[in-house]
Every structure is written in C-alpha cells, then in structure tokens.
Amino acid sequence: xxxxxxxxxxxxxxxxxxxxxxxxxxxxxxxxxxxxxxxxxxxxxxxxxxxxxxxxxxxxxxxxxxxxxxxxxxxxxxxxxxxxxxxxxxxxxxxxxxxxxxxxxxxxxxxxxxxxxxxxxxxxxxxxxxxxxxxxxxxxxxxxxxxxxxxxxxxxxxxxxxxxxxxxxxxxxxxxxxxxxxxxxxxxxxxxxxxxxxxxxxxxxxxxxxxxxxxxxxxxxxxxxxxxxxxxxxxxxxxxxxxxxxxxxxxxxxxxxxxxxxxxxxx
Amino acid sequence: xxxxxxxxxxxxxxxxxxxxxxxxxxxxxxxxxxxxxxxxxxxxxxxxxxxxxxxxxxxxxxxxxxxxxxxxxxxxxxxxxxxxxxxxxxxxxxxxxxxxxxxxxxxxxxxxxxxxxxxxxxxxxxxxxxxxxxxxxxxxxxxxxxxxxxxxxxxxxxxxxxxxxxxxxxxxxxxxxxxxxxxxxxxxxxxxxxxxxxxxxxxxxxxxxxxxxxxxxxxxxxxxxxxxxxxxxxxxxxxxxxxxxxxxxxxxxxxxxxxxxxxxxxxxxxxxxxxxxxxxxxxxxxxxxxxxxxxxxxxxxxxxxxxxxxxxxxxxxxxxxxxxxxxxxxxxxxxxxxxxxxxxxxxxxxxxxxxxxxxxxxxxxxxxxxxxxxxxxxxxxxxxxxxxxxxxxxxxxxxxxxxxxxxxxxxxxxxxx
Lengths: 267, 417
Fold this sequence. Notes:
Chain A is built from eight helices and ten strands. Chain A is of the alpha/beta class.
C-alpha cells in the first residue's frame, strides 16, 4: 500500500509519500503560494519524483493544514492537530505530548496509546488571537535584524547574554528589537532573547494540557536549533525529541491516517 | 452634538424594521413555535420600553426581573440589547462608538456594545438602574457611568461569594427588599407585596415547565437544536415573572413532547452529543450550523439554560429570590460549577464539552481551566476551550474556528471508535 499526505501550511507545503512498511519513499517541501491547488500539485509531483513512483500507484491521499479543503486530488481532509500527533508518534512511538510551531500557529497536543499500538488525540490547545511566536514572527524579526531566517539558530549559539524581549505582539516586538539594535546590543543576544520569548509563549500553552515524560517537537520553526534548545531547557528533565525533518510531521501523519482509512475501508 | 427626538424616532423605526426582518429570516431548520413566541416577546418588550409612558428599569445579568415586574415597570436586560443588535448587524457602529470613547477592545463586548449605544443615545432611556456584583464586576462600574449620563439612580446588589451560608441569603434578601422599595420610591410606582407574590407564582410556573423541558431534552436523539435552545436565555433572564415566559415555556414543553412522541429528531442520525458552556456568537449562526447541521454533532444542552433552584415561596418573596440568585452555578467556588457540568454530562449523555471563551469575559474565562482540570479527575470526557466572540464579529475568524471544531470532532470520532 502506498499513501500520501499533503500538508498545506501558511508558509510551506509538504508532501510525504509513504510505502508499504510506513517508510518514507519521498518527500518535498515547497513555499506555499497563493494558488493552493497548484502548490499542492507541484509538491506532490516533487515527492513522487523522489519516490520514483507514479501518481496512479498511490492508494489514498489525505490533505491537512489550513489549505486542506482546497486540494481536489485528496481523498479526504483531516486537521493538522490529528496529523501532527500521528506524525510525531511515527517518529517517536513513546511520545505522548507534541509541541508544534508552524508558520502562523503553535499548538500543544496530548495523545494516549491504544490497544492496537496506535494513538489518539485526547486534548489540544492552539494559539489564539495572535500569531506572535510562530514562523512568521521569526521571519519578521530576521528581516529587522538583516539576517537569513535559516541562520537564526546558528547565530543564537554564539550568544553570551540573553536579552529579555518583553513583548510578544509581532509589531511591538519588532519595535523592541529595533530599539535593542540601536542600543548596539549584539544580534546574537537579541536572537537568543527572541527564541526564549517564543519558547515561553509556547510553554504557556503546553502547560494547559497534561505534559507527559516524552515530548516531540514538530513544525518548521523546529528547524531553528535555537528555539529547540530553549524549549529543551525549559522542559528539562523531560525527554524532548526532535525529528530530522520536523516540518514534515504533519504530512507524515496525514499519510499514516490515509493508511488507516485504506485498512478500515472508510471513504 | 446631542441627538434630537426626531433622530431617536428614526433610530427606533430602523431597529423595528431590522428586528422584524430578523424574525422573518429564512432559517436552516424548522423553529419551534415557542421560539418564535420568544423572539416576538423580546421584540415587543424592547419596543414598549421605547414608549415615553413606560417606566423602564435597566438591569444587568441576574438582577431578578421579578422585583421590576412587581412595580409594573419594564425590566430591560441591557446586555441582551447588544446580542439583539449583533444579530441584526447594528452592533459594529455601537462598538466603534465605545472604542472612540476609550473603552478597550479587550473588555466585555456586551457592555461595550451597550456603552456605544448609550453614547449614541439610541437606547430606551432608563428611569432607574440595578446591577449586581456577579457575573460581572464590570456591570456596576459601567452602570455608574450610565446613571451619571441619564441622571438616574443606580442600585447595586452585592451578591456574597459564600453561597451556602444562611447569612448570605439573609443579606441578599434584605438588599432585594430595600432596592425594590427604593425603585418604587424613585419611579413613583407603588409596591404591593401581593403583586410580587403573583409574579413569584408566574416564575414558579415557568420554572416547572423549563425543568420539564430539561428532562425532555435528555432524550436521545435530541428533540431540539442547541442553536435554538441557547437563545432562550435572553428571554429567561429578562422575562422571569411574566406571563409571556409561562406561555413560551409551556409551549416549549408541549412541542418537545410532541416531537419525541412523533420520533422527530433535531438532526437525522445524531453523531455526537455536545454540552455547550457560555453563550453563543450572535452575529451569525455559522458555528452552530456547522456543528449541528453539517457535522450532526448536536448541542444537547447548554449550561446557561440550567434551572438549579426549586419552587419559590410566594409568601417569602425576597428570601426566595435570594435563594434563586445564590443557586446559580457560576457564583461561589469553582467546584460548584464543575459539579454541575459533571451532572449535565451524565444527564444528557454528553460525548464532549465545548467551553466557549469570549475574549473579554474575564470572569467566565477564569473558570475555564479550573473546571476542565476538575472534571478530568472525575470523568473521561473531551473538553475543549473554544476562543470565540459573542458580539464583536471583527474578532471572529471562520477558518480558525473551523479548524478547532474539526480537530475536536476528530477527537470525539477517535474516542468513539
């Protein structure tokens, strides 16, 4: 059985093609465009090419993410909450708490094991009212600091002193960062402060659901080693897992969900 | 610039037109006759309160309307005006007006709406005002502003936190009597204790019907949509003691009985039964339509429609009204609310709880996590705190809400296997 998961996020679109043994045959990550359908098709084509299989060979496709209802070739849509949970569990079967930070939202998910070896979501919480502390937030801050968003993690490792960033509204934080730059504070320290601010904001969500001993981090922001490091510090001594490709967890979960649908014969 | 009487008249006619259009709106479900009677009663009361000859007493949530009916005055449950205005899309201009006057967008939208309407002088003018210290501490403060603006007296009912103490009832009963007598004095409406006893009898009769309706709504599948049922709270809060409430509650019971006898369900092939806590978005029906009609997750009961008190003694009206007030699950320690939620979950065979958390509702939101954690110790029922706005449609994001609802329904589906 071959299945695929398509995760249409606000910043990026991921597709994962899963093989018979739940092995990842191929995946792709593309920047989300205005035309959701086109992005999804291009991402699927890229993943199929990597997997060296044809579209017709896929038994079932599930779409997830904010654009999940706009993927005409998907057989079904499932929310990113369920998909991230399944994806994180796929990478780390012992995980029971998931922290996901994507382009415009962050969420904490609690799961429990089932008799069949699978898991189900029992609780979740998402950011509300404001997307501060998400991928977009970091993009804006990287722009203000004149650094590539991909370099934020590396730069924060060089910080010798963490700067406190008090505001978590993106616009207000932007002006706060500008003020810190004017004070000639090293960029590395400001970045480290931003990472801590994100970690604390996300943890305020996480603490509202039961936090278990094994936690997995997912979402594009987790490519930033600085944010992950701060989360690890704050969650210590709990075990905090980080997949090699944290941003594809949602698509992996969607592909696993697709397998469940094929097995159960549900449409 | 002060608004002229001609402008007020035009406003009134505009309201009237909008509310009438609202009552005739096409609906995605067949409403109960009782619900239509309720809408007409609310509209009639609002229009009557605009009349110069009417004695209008503004009241906040949970001020017993019985003491106002006993004086043959009109109780205008002022927060419900914001809900009605939101339903006919008048509210945005009211909210804008209050914000321009310095009221934060983080505060209660019900009160901000009323404040905006008051600043625009489009409300029925009060002869006196009564507020309580619960639910909302914001009520007495904003009522003070209204009192100053309209140059009318404001009476304040302090509700004790220690709900189970006898002295709490006595203090409350004393205040209720004192306020009633003061209202009589300032409005020139004579107080007659026998009239209050009659009003109490009306409340008893309506309460009995509503309790019966609560029993009937335990039926699986649900005979009534939550979307429709939740709107009863506006009438309930405003019309206790009136004959209209007796009529509509009796009609509600009769229709529910009839539906159950005929096997009529609110939605075909009911998938899930939800308990809804707090009020609802008034600016559209999207959330309830999506849950109940599209997803067949029927709101089997709503916390706001819970009747928690027994029949009142008409010979001891103030003591009885005090007991009725103190029976509200929202006051006192949070364990009381948790206990009632657990009871509703059992009574209504609930699969999941949606706890609506409006942005500015500090008092209810402070209970959210405590009730959720308390309930988790008692039972395994999915509980979702849904950030959702009642009045201000500018704070509503359809897709964000939809994702959260879908995820919650996925939890329920997985749990039920």
